[in-house]
């Protein structure tokens, strides 16, 4: 491809020279044609130079948005794995009211998110959830004991990450994940073998969308924000990445994410 471009450039120069010189050759006996040929001889190189400068400018602009991405950073939940807490909770067969309250006070609570930070041992978090629902304390404990069952790897996760790595991109994980569930599921997260670096919130005691966890990723692995793109299902996590200069794509589904990556030159 490089040799082809060089040959095309040489051919273009020859054509321009012929375009400039041929009129002069035929105009040697006619003063009016001679003057016109001089105009052509001057105008053609100028136009050629302007076209070349325009091409360089457009190519540079294109390169600023495409072709410079080196790092792809993945969230895990709802990007590479399913997090089906509703189906898991329903499997216990609790009465409707109890099912609703456990959903609200456990899976949809701020305490659930803080559990991902990993500041305390699992028993401390379990007792906090029990205090939130003392009438269902025993069931809450039972639900939390098997909470790793909410996680299931998506069928494209391994092949997608393996493909991107084969194309020369460096891959990373940046995910909020609790220590207890990670111990239950890490062996099933087979796509991790394709990663060049992994940051789980419980291991650094930091959470998205707080900026320090993004800075930890960039600093630990020496990544340049402008060369990195982050995929996450949550808008606030994507916005936090953008605030640090990282390109971000809010993940909705595999097809949409692939299309968005292609716009950045990642194919």
UniProtKB/TrEMBL annotation:
Transmembrane helix among keywords: yes
Keyword vocabulary terms for this entry: Membrane, Transmembrane, Transmembrane helix
TM ranges: 7-27, 33-52
UniProt key word Mitochondrion: no
Gene3D superfamilies in alphabetical order: HAD superfamily/HAD-like (3.40.50.1000), Putative phosphatase, domain 2 (1.10.150.240)
Domain of life: Bacteria
PROSITE patterns noted in UniProt: PROKAR_LIPOPROTEIN
UniProt protein name: HAD family phosphatase
Organism of origin: Blautia ammoniilytica
């Amino acid at each position: 491809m490089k040799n082809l471009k060089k040959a095309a450039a040489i051919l273009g120069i020859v054509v321009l020279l012929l375009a400039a010189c041929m009129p002069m050759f035929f105009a040697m006996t006619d003063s009016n044609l001679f003057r016109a040929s001089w105009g052509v001889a001057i105008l053609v190189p100028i136009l050629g130079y302007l076209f070349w400068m325009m091409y360089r400018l457009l190519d540079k602009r294109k390169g600023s948005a495409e072709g410079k991405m080196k790092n792809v950073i993945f969230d895990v939940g709802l990007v590479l794995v399913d997090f089906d807490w509703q189906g898991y909770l329903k499997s216990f067969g609790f009465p409707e009211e109890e099912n609703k309250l456990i959903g609200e006070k456990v899976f949809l609570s701020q305490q659930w998110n803080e559990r991902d930070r990993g500041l305390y041992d699992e028993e401390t978090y379990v007792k906090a959830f029990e205090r939130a629902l003392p009438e269902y304390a025993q069931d809450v404990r039972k639900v939390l004991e098997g909470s790793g069952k909410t996680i299931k790897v998506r069928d494209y996760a391994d092949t997608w990450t393996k493909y991107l790595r084969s194309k020369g991109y460096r891959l990373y994980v940046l995910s909020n994940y609790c220590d207890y569930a990670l111990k239950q599921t890490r062996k099933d997260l087979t796509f991790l073998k394709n990663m060049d670096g992994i940051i789980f919130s419980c291991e650094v005691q930091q959470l998205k969308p707080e900026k320090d966890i993004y800075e930890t990723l960039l600093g630990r692995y020496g990544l340049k924000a402008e060369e990195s793109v982050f995929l996450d299902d949550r808008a606030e996590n994507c916005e936090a990445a953008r605030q640090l200069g990282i390109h971000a794509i809010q993940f909705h589904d595999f097809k949409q994410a692939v299309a968005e990556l292609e716009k950045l030159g990642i194919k």
